[in-house]
Amino acid sequence: MLTEISNTRALGQLMYTHYLYVFQVAGLILLVAMIGAIVLTLRHRPGVQRQRISTQINRKRSESMVIKQVSSGAGAPVQ
User: Fold this and answer.
1) Which of 25, 43, 45, 49 is most buried (most C-beta within 10 Å)?
2) How far is the CA of 56 from the CAs of 21, 30, 41, 48, 78, in angstroms?
3) Cα 77 to Cα 37: distance, rounded to the nearest angstrom
4) Tens digits of per-residue pLDDT, 20-59?
């Protein structure tokens, strides 16, 4: 009697039996690369502004918007 195994199951069995160490090393390399990318992104550099969420939330409407009265036809001419 022939046992049918799906492609996904056969691929999983192959990866987790014959290529287990290679699969784990590849995962470890990806983990180290991800941690390295986070460390490089989070370092503080002079001259680079960082986002301050508390300042954005606590700002007043008068500090963030300026309403100007513009008379009709006072804009730049259309070319």
Assistant:
1) 25
2) 48, 35, 22, 17, 37
3) 49
4) 899 899 999 999 999 999 998 887 778 878 888 888 888 8
Q: Are 46 and 53 in contact (CB under 8 A)?
A: no
How far is the C-alpha of 27 from the C-alpha of 37, rounded, in Å?
15
Which two tokens mark 11?
């691929």
Provide the 8-state DSSP code for 18: T
- pTM exceeds cut of 0.85: no
Q: What's 77's DSSP letter? A: P
Instruction: Assess whether pLDDT exceeds 80 at residue 1.
Output: no
**Alpha carbon distance 72, 69 (integer Å):** 10
